[in-house]
User: Fold Inosose dehydratase from Schaedlerella arabinosiphila.
Amino acid sequence: MLNKEKVKLGIAPIAWTNDDMPDLGKENTFEQCVSEMALAGFTGSEVGNKYPKDTDVLKKALELRGMEICNQWFSCFLITKPFEEVEKEFRSQLEYLRTMGAKVIGASEQSHSVQGMTDTPVFGHKYVMNDQEWETFCNGMNRLGKIAKEEYGIALTFHHHMGTVVQDEAEVDRMMENTDPEYVSLLFDTGHFAYCGVDPLKMVKKYADRIKHVHLKDIRREMVDKVKAENLSFLDGVRMGTFTVPGDGCIDFDPIFKVLEETGYEGYMLVEAEQDPAKANPLEYAIKARKFIAEKTGL
Assistant:
């Protein structure tokens, strides 16, 4: 069983309102979203597109529900923009997160990403970095991680993601080998590894000592196979239901939880399973996820 004193549970607002496709869940308000998160038994949330930018307003809304912000997505463009430009936006977000009491920021390199392109198949069309770009990227991550840790007290975790330059096992390996463990950690996402054909159990075993944030999502294998066979985009897949909450798809979470327990994982485990809320009621799926995690981990 995982340690309740060291591991907290959160859920992402993307199941209620989708940042990349605002029509999904456009009817769901911020207040409904955080109320249902709390009702389902979660204490942490990441930041969504409907969340108040005013930290006082956001703090009050969350405190009323016994919740807190635990992380926020940050889009890096280290290989296509000047570092100073990325740094400026990064610092702004770190300031916001520090004010909210968050301990983690989740960065994803979005240069040349196809994850948000509705007309580009997610399989077979991702950009591959050359050696110079790899050097620029890894050096940039180290610099950002140093700023986050030393100036803001926040850990930089890298979010590998379908359709981006760091998606596959070899790419995650290369990034981890060429970044400083003191400044760059891994945001371990079960769903994105499984989606691209990488065994999430293998990856959690390999990088357990560098994981500082966990995204729990499951995949519907038949839907992922359909995306691949029909050359569909990542967002097409989301609409169809490629993702679901842990326990509702094909990933075996038991051994993954066991590794996290045995290696003494500390931090948030966050359910992040973007679906069409009109097809998958967010509260219903949040409760389903919460029950599954309680049953498997004792949390």
Summary: The CA atoms of residues 53 and 111 lie 25 Å apart. The mean pLDDT is 97.
